């Protein structure tokens, strides 16, 4: 009988020790999870702030043919025709569902102007009639229009303060 009681005590001691280890493991696991979750926002967001952007939404696109080019100038030099030599940034995006938008990142504060072309036949230029009237869509920042030609840089220019900026530009055909 005493052997039986001794083995019961032994089994009870082992179960108690196992239960103690199991509870301790659960406590440590929960503690680690809570500590990590409390620090995640600091780790995740502190190292990856969203950089400011100039977001340009193009409106009134006639069709989904071709692509739209958006060119950013920081001075009147070459505006708007000599974009390959004089532009600060240039982007070309294929039109899908008559919608296009552009995001310019890492732009320093200053004065800029935008020129946009809907290159429907993707030949890399704004097609015009023999009189020089555009056959494809075009637009400028501030939605300015030129008289007998493209507008001046000063008319299309806008000030960028280095913060997020949302713009919409309507195309003219």
What does it look like?
This protein has 173 residues and is an alpha+beta fold. The chain has two domains: 49 residues; 118 residues, Immunoglobulin-like (Sandwich). It is 31% helix and 29% strand. It is built from three helices and eight strands; from the N terminus they run αββαββββαββ. The strands form two sheets. Strands 2, 3, 5, 6 and 7 form a five-stranded antiparallel β-sheet that branches. The protein has a three-stranded mixed β-sheet with strand order 4-1-8, with no helix packed on it. InterPro entries: DUF2141 (IPR018673). This is DUF2141 domain-containing protein. It comes from Candidatus Scalindua japonica.
Descriptive key words:
alpha+beta; Immunoglobulin-like; DUF2141; globular; 173 residues; five-stranded antiparallel beta sheet
């Amino acid at each position: 009988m005493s052997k039986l009681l001794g083995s019961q005590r032994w089994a009870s001691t082992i179960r108690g020790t196992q239960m103690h280890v199991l509870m301790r493991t659960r406590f440590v696991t929960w503690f680690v999870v809570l500590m990590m979750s409390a620090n995640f926002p600091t780790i995740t967001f502190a190292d990856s702030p969203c950089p400011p952007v100039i977001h340009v939404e193009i409106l009134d696109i006639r069709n989904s043919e071709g692509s739209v080019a958006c060119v950013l100038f920081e001075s009147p030099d070459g505006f708007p025709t000599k974009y390959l030599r004089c532009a600060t940034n240039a982007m070309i995006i294929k039109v899908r569902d008559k919608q296009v938008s552009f995001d310019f990142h890492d732009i320093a504060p200053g004065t800029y102007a935008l020129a946009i072309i809907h290159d429907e036949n993707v030949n890399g230029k704004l097609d015009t009639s023999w009189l020089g009237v555009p056959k494809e869509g075009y637009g400028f920042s501030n939605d300015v229009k030129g008289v007998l030609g493209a507008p001046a840089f000063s008319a299309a220019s806008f000030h960028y303060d280095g913060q997020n900026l949302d713009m919409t530009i309507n195309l003219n055909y």
